[in-house]
Amino acid sequence: MNVLVLLHGGGPGVDAASNWAPVRPRLEAGFRCLAPDLLGFGTRIAGGAGLRGPVAWARARARQVLDLLDDHGLRRVHVVGNSAAGGAAALALMAEAPDRVERAVLMGGAGTGPAPSTVPFYDEPTRETMRATLARLVADERTHGDLLDDLAGTRLERALQPGAEAAFRSMFDPDPDPDHRPGVHPERIETPVLVLHGERDRVNPVGVSARLAEALPHGRLEVVAGAGHWIHVDRPDEFCTAVTGFLSA
Fold first, then answer.
1. What is the pLDDT of residues 179-230, one digit of tens each?
2. DSSP H or E run through 105
3. Exposed / middle / buried, residue 14 (Cβ in 10 Å: 0-12, 13-18, 19+)
4. In 3D, which of 239, 193, 184 has the Cα closest to residue 213?
5. Helix (H, G, I), strand (E, B) or coil at 129
6. Which residue of 22, 65, 106, 147 is 20 to 30 Å from 33, comparing CA positions?
């Protein structure tokens, strides 16, 4: 069975289990799935001590994935990278170890869009602001009220763990060498890539993913109708169909 590595997004308090819960059971029908907590999140909050800026974090997470593959004796895998954490890590992985990734799916711009003007959530870390942060990730929060309520509590608890805020803020520090930011040179990535973007994404416009797909030598853009930034939450059936179809081609 082909192995699929699922790299979660980068919101405050995220972990792999909650990020992929809406779609992992269906993906596991066709793939052996590995879903690690990325450095700086979940069980790996302290794992990125000393890192500063998106480039350093993306490269460290790419090395984390390579270590994971080596630990499992895996030579070549498929990858799904979600947004500015998982997507950027996937880009760094394909740039640094292209022989280890057979095909990849990138979501929500993969960290190639403009940086936010302020660090999300932590200036006012309450349950209400966490829920508002999460609500922005779906197309219509009224459709996912119970899920957002549940996640707001669990993610607030994780976001307030010792070291979580410092790690998160350091991910937004200026890059000392922005020319090496993942996604700056996608023309060098030869891996076949499906770039997914929600039609109603309120985090990044579709144009961010369109530019990324156009720059990738073997990139293809698919816009998911009715979905927000969390494509796999808003449109899980369409998401799984697109991912499994592309990775199985």
1. 555 555 788 899 999 999 999 999 999 999 999 999 999 999 999 999 999 9
2. strand 101-107
3. buried
4. 193
5. helix
6. 147
